[in-house]
Write a structure and sequence with these properties.
The longest helix is centred in the last third of the chain and has 26 residues. α1 crosses α4. The protein is built from 4 helices and no strands. The chain starts with a helix and ends with a helix. It is mostly helical and about 100 residues long.
């Protein structure tokens, strides 16, 4: 249980940081607190078996577009960048801990 909480917290932190960096590199402007809330909600939804990852991606794009008042196209690029970088970071951290 403790390891699961640690992995979940690490995922939320890495995702929030990656969203923040991606939003600074794009035309999407959102405050850090809103990004943290989005990351927590999306991570919780992504825990649902089978369909959670798809629902998480759709919810991620929707919440980011509402929080930033940005177009869906810009939000899709931010989400793709965020997911790719955060997956890479999590894989690197997992490989270094093994």
């Amino acid at each position: 249980m403790g390891l699961d909480v640690l992995i979940f917290s690490l995922d939320v932190f890495v995702t929030t940081f990656c969203i923040f960096i991606a939003s600074k590199l794009s035309f999407v402007s959102v405050e850090f607190r809103a990004l943290l809330v989005i990351a927590v909600i999306v991570s919780l939804v992504s825990l649902i078996p089978v369909v959670g990852w798809v629902a998480g991606l759709v919810l991620f794009i929707y919440l980011l577009s509402k929080a930033a008042n940005a177009s869906f196209g810009d939000c899709i690029w931010v989400v793709l960048f965020t997911k790719l970088v955060s997956a890479g970071v999590i894989m690197l951290l997992g490989a270094s801990m093994a």
